[in-house]
Amino acid sequence: MSTNPENQDTPLGDVYDGLRLRSTQLETKNQPLSLSERVEKIEATLLLVADVYRFQRLSELLAAGKWREADLETIQVILELSGHTELESITPNDVRQLSCNQLRVIDKLWTTYSQERFGFSAQIQMYQSVGGSLNTTIAQDNSVIERFGEQVGWRINGQWQKCDELDYTLNAPKGCHPSRWWNSPFGSKMTNYFFARLIACAI
User: Into how many domains does the chain fold?
Assistant: First the structure.
């Protein structure tokens, strides 16, 4: 089967078409994209197409605005990437080995369909906005994690919320989703390890 993005009759193909249309619109308005922006969009598209089957269901759910279902599917994608079948089996060491390219694809899908409200990049921005850095992940600074949780709606009145209590609409705080993936039995230790991975990958 052809891997040409223009021939992909899937939501991932729609992402490509949307990026191409947006590029054309910007150029028409005398706002040409820089070379780095063009390269970034092309690379993002190629990453999506290369794994079209692995990410197709996640893409379809996000395109339909089914944020709760997409949240669950994100776990399934990461499980497949890590070679595990249960979230409880993923260790901090597994997180350190997650592919940066694959994480970028997940982030790109969430970002594209949520109008940049959700995704790993939105979450790392919120983390850094409350003082988070690579140093705080190494120090396992849980106070930063708590401030982050308050910003994204995971923590209210000093209490962590259950995933089912979160707002699964675009009215949710920026960075609120994906959320269930973060609910690891390793607790804040895993959260710090995953933030460290996102920072290392420049998500």
Answer: 2
